Amino acid sequence: MEVKELARNDEERESARLVKERGYGIVVSSTPGERVRKKISESSPQFKAYARDATLPNVLVVFDGLAFGHTDGYNIRVAMYGLEQLRIALPPIGTGSPYATGWSYGPKRKMTAQDNTSISSIAQLFATGPDPSQLMLSVYHNRFAKVPLNSALLARYGVPHFELKPDWQSGKTAQWRQVA
Predict the structure, then answer these.
(1) Of 148, 129, 138, nearest in space to 177 by CA
(2) Which residues, including other chains, have CB under 8 Å from residue 46's CB and lie 6 or more apart?
(3) Which one in 25, 122, 144, 175 has a CA-CA gap of 20 to 30 Å to 44?
(4) Residue 101, CB half-sphere, CA atoms under 13 Å: how many?
C-alpha cells in the first residue's frame, strides 16, 4: 500500500489566503483527474517492483484532506480510464447535421490492459468533517489489475468498494457502481 497526499498547489494556496482575507477566493482550474494521474505515475515503478512475484493486491491511497475535489470518484475514474469524450459523426456536406454516436474514454488514461496492472485499486482517503480524526476510505477497483483486491477484506469495516458498471464499453463511459 502506498499513500500519496495531494498537497495544495500555488493557485489553491492563494485562493485559501484570499478566502481568509476577503471571504471568497479565486477560481481554481485543472484537467479532470490530473492530480490523481500524477500520483499514479509517481507510484507506478514502486508497485511494479512489488508486483513481480506478488500474490497480494497493491492499493494506492490518495488523500486530499483539504477537500478540493481532486480525489472524488469522477477524478479517480478519468485518471484511471481516460478523459470522457463524445464521438461525433460528420455526414457528407449537405446531407445532414453532425450527430453523436456515443461516449468513450479518450486520452490520458493510466489503467489499461498493459499499463499499471500492478495497481489493484485506488483508495480515496478523505475527512468527513473538521476533525482530522474523522476519516473515511472509499476503494475504486482497477478492472485491469493482475491481482484484484477482494472487497470483502475491507467491507466489514464499512469501506465502500466501487467498480465500473459492466456496460463500460457499450458506446458510453461507465459509471462506478458500489459492490460492497
Answers:
(1) 138
(2) 2
(3) 175
(4) 7
pLDDT in tens, the chain (180 residues): 556 666 667 777 787 788 788 887 776 667 888 889 999 999 888 888 777 667 889 999 998 765 557 788 999 999 999 988 888 899 899 898 998 888 888 888 899 889 888 999 999 988 777 776 778 889 999 999 999 999 988 878 889 999 988 765 566 677 899 997
Backbone angles phi, psi at 159, to 5 degrees: -85, 120
3-state helix, strand, coil in the chain (%, to 5): 25, 25, 50
Q: What is the DSSP string of 113-165?
A: SSSSTT--EEEEEEESSSSTT-EEEEEEE-TT-SSPPPTHHHHTTT--EEEE-
